Amino acid sequence: MAKKLQKAQLCIDRDFEISKIDERIFGSFLEHLGRAVYEGIYQPGNKNADKDGYRKDVIKLINEIHVPIVRYPGGNFVSGFNWEDSVGPKKDRPRRIELAWNVVETNQFGLNEFMEWCKKANTKPMMAVNLGTRDIDAAKNIVEYCNIKSGTYYSDLRIKHGVKNPHDIKLWCLGNEMDGPWQIGHMTAQEYGMKAGRAGHIMKLVDPSIETVVCGSSSLYMDTFGEWEKTVLECSYDSADYLSLHTYYGNPEDDTPNFLASNVAMDKFISQVISICDYVKAVKRKNKTINLSFDEWNVWYHSNEQDKKLEKWVEHPHQLEDVYNFEDALLVGSMLITLLRHADRVKIACLAQLVNVIAPIMTSDTGAWRQTIFYPYMHASLYGRGTVLNTVVKSPSYESKHGDAPYIDSVVTADDENETITIFAVNKNLGEDFELTCDLRQYAGYKLVDHIVLTNDDLKAVNTEKKPNAVAPTEGKNTKVEKGILTTVLPSKSWNVIRLAK
Ligand code: AHR
C-alpha cells in the first residue's frame, strides 16, 4: 500500500507583494581570517592562480553563485586593522600581530588587491572600517583614499600606489560587533552609538553618496539585545542607513528537529529589530526608515573544538573550517527563505563567509569544491530575483525550543519582467514526504521549467575534495501544473526549487 502523504498548501496572490528583492540580500563575506584570503582567493604560484595570484577556480565557483556584494576585511579582524598597512609596495607592508584571531597578518593582500579581485569576481565591495582601535579620522581617510578622484593627500596616495581611478565604494560598515566583549575596543551602546554617528557623519562629508551600516547585536541572545539597538540608533540615526544583525546556529547536541527550527529564532530576531528601528523612528519624528543588513549569518560549530588547539602567531592557519553536512544545507535553505520573507526590510545580507572559513567553497593546493550549503545559496541567488510574494504556508508544525516550527518553510518569488515564478521550499520532516499544492491560476500560461531537489538519506553526508558530489541536487519527478494548480511532492528532509515560466 502506498505511503500516505502529509499535505501542505501555498496561498499567493499576484498583487500581494512583500517587496522587490534587493540583490544585495545574496551577499557574502571575506575576512582576513584563516585561509579565506590567503590560499582561499589569493595564492600566488598556485597552478590555479592567475598572473596576479588570484585563484581562478574559486572565482569560477563564485560566479556560479552570482555574489552581488562581499563584505571585507572583517569581522573581528577589522577592529585591530590599520588599512594603511595594506596599501603601497608589498615589500614595505608590515607584518602585524593580529589580536582578533591570534595570528600574524602579512598584509600581502590588501585594499587595492581586494578591489581588483572584486572586478575579477564580478562583485561589489561592502567595506568595513575599524572603530575598535582607531578613531573617526582613519575612517575619513579611507573614504578619501577610495572615493576621491585626485588632488588631495589620500587620493593622490592611491594614485601613487598605481590605482588611477577611485574605487567608488558605496557601502560601508561602521565597525563590527562592538557589543561583544570579545571585540577589540568593545564599547557600551552609548559610546559606540556616538562614535558611529560621528564616523558616519565625517565619512559622508567626504562622499555624500555612500551608505552606512551601524552595528546591531551580535546575536539575539546578547544580554544587551534591544537596549543596544535602541541606544545606538538614538545616537546615530542621522548618519545611519542600515542596522546590522548577526547570527550563527549549530547542532552540537545532535538534535536535528531543534536545529532545523533555528530559523524560527532568526525570524523573531528580524521582526524584533524592525520594531526597534521603527520605535526610534517614531520617537525621533523621522521620515527616514532604517533598513536591516543581516551581514553575518550561517551555521558555525563543527570546527570549534579543533580551533581550540591552534598554535598562536602563525600565518593563515586552517581556522573555522567547518565541513558542512546535508542537514546544514537544509537550515541554510530555511534561513534564506526567512531572509526573503523579510525582503521589505532586509536589504543586505551576507552569508558568512565565502571561502574556506565557514564557507560554501573550500580549497586545497590542488583544487576547489562546493560544500553542501553551496547549493541553497546558489539557487536562491540565481532564482530568487524579482519580487517576493506574500506567501501563506498552510503546513502542520512541531514544537521546538524556538517555538512552533512549520514542517514546510516556503516562499514564492515572481519576476514579472522575465515572466518567471520560483517556489523555494524546505521539508523539515525527517520521515515523511509532503504533497504541496499551490493555486497558480492568476499565472495563466506559466509552465513548469524544473524542480530541483537537494535530499539525502544521510543527514550527516558531506562533500570533500575526493567526493565532491556526495551531496548534490537532482531533478524532482512528481511536479505538475494542471488547470492552473501546481502539485508536487517534497521529499522528507529536502530543499526544493520549483521554477515556472511563461
Ligand atoms: O565570521 C566569523 C566571526 O564571527 C566574525 O569575525 C565576527 O564578526 C563574528 O563573531
Key features?
single chain, 502 residues, alpha/beta, Immunoglobulin-like, TIM Barrel, 2 domains, eight-stranded parallel β-barrel, seven-stranded antiparallel beta sheet, 11 helices, 26% strand, globular, binds alpha-L-arabinofuranose
CATH C-level label of the largest domain: Alpha Beta
Total number of distinct structural domains: 2
**What is the CATH superfamily classification of the largest domain?**
Glycosidases
Helix vs. strand class: alpha/beta
* Biggest β-sheet description: 8 strands, parallel, barrel
CATH architecture of the largest domain: Alpha-Beta Barrel
Q: Estimate percent helicity.
A: 10-25%
What is the CA-atom radius of gyration, in angstroms? Answer: 23 Å
User: Can you tell me the residue ranges where pLDDT is under 50 for at least 5 consecutive residues?
Assistant: none
Record the strand order, biggest sheet. Answer: 3-4-7-8-9-10-11-12
Instruction: Name the hetero compounds present.
Output: alpha-L-arabinofuranose
Kindly estimate the percentage of residues that lie in beta strands according to DSSP: 25-35%
Beta strands, count: 26
The best one-word shape is globular
Distance between the termini: 38 Å
Task: Classify the fold: give the CATH topology of the largest domain.
Answer: TIM Barrel
What is the count of helical runs?
Answer: 11
